[in-house]
Amino acid sequence: MGTTYDTSDLTCKTRLILSNLETLRHDHHLLLSSTIDDDKRQCLQQSLESVDLGIDEGLVMLQLGHHFDDLDSETHKLMLQVQRLTQENNWLRDELSVTEKHLQTSTQ
């Protein structure tokens, strides 16, 4: 079964995860500055690169979320405009029909 998520919920969770990753990143930097063992430093550095990648991916997800929200808003505005133009078009057709009838009766 597919699971659907609320966009604002995903954004909130992504921000929380980013905050946790930033804390983890800070902790890694502290450990790197105090560790002398080269093997541990290499392991920490690899882990730090993964954390940085996670942060970058989280930021991209937030930007995509904002972009999708903007697209949804624009789509909604355009749909309202289509409805308004359809109503206006129908009104103009009615007016044209009435005018044509008046013209026919006046020419007879």
TrEMBL record:
Signal peptide: none annotated. GO terms for biological process: microtubule-based movement. It is found in: Cytoplasm. The keyword Transmembrane does not apply. InterPro entries: Kinesin_light. The keyword Repeat applies. One of its GO terms (cellular component) is cytoplasm. It comes from the Eukaryota. One of its GO terms (molecular function) is kinesin binding. Its main location: cytoplasm. Keywords: Cytoplasm, Repeat, TPR repeat. This is Uncharacterized protein. It comes from Adineta ricciae.
